[in-house]
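Appendix B. One record, verbatim.
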Amino acid sequence: MARPLRIEYPGAFYHVTARGNERKDIFLDDSDREKFLSYLETAFLRYKAAIHVYCLMSNHYHLLIETPEGNLSQIMRHINGAYTTYVNSKRQRTGHLFQGRYKAILVEADEYAGELSRYMHLNPVRAGIVTKPEDYDWSSYRYYLGKDKAPKWLTKKFILKYFGGKTSRAQTAYQDFINAMSNKEYESPLQKTVASTILGNREFVEEIKGKYLEGKVPDRNLPALRQLKMTSVKDIEKEVEALFGKGTMRAKKASLYLCHTYSGRSLKEIGTHFHMGESAVSQASRRFRLMLEKDNRLKRNIHALCGKLNLCNV
């Protein structure tokens, strides 16, 4: 069964969301919402969670959360677990409240925190619940404008610092920023997420891969890791040709085999590159694998290439 890829480290930012099982409501009344917010507070007190933005809808929620201690899994077990226990007890029910695991996207905060906060604060407007985001009681937006006193567990300074030095000036600028896209169609910043896991520029993605995914082997049960660690067909060909010679039949067969077995590319993608049909790719890869079983020298060479390209665990 596919699992989400969790990348955790001190100071990481995440956009977190969870939906009700079968898309059913997880909040039936204001007391439910108040109870959920109380678990955000205890996550702050017990696990040092920094809640930057929140928005509670009827059947799902959004959080922009920072983990100074690199403990997202612990934080989310507390929030979702405690709230599920509360709901099951209150409604005299059993079973899952949420639809599978929560979704957490690692965020390059300096680049995307502001955009994400706007997307989250405008969620009730997009849903047609209110016409102005400040009219919605169950998001952090009113606190950002200074209309209500913010709870101690809500952190506003990080985002507001991008909108001015003085608090009043930053609040006005932030409101203008939100209103600029209110009641307008615009692309969600989450559309730029890489492998359903990381939201950031190319340098940020590469930095995360280098620091936290180095040495991890692609796993069919972790499709996000497999996608993040996909090696290009050209990179594979380059290393294979350096070993077996450019344009040789053995180089082509080895390249095809490695692409099929380890690159994460589809049969169609591989076939298009090598000018072959999908079934021909599978058959050629199988024949080369049989060659490896009989030729120890060839097997050692392929094994060395795997290690050099970080395609498999060596």
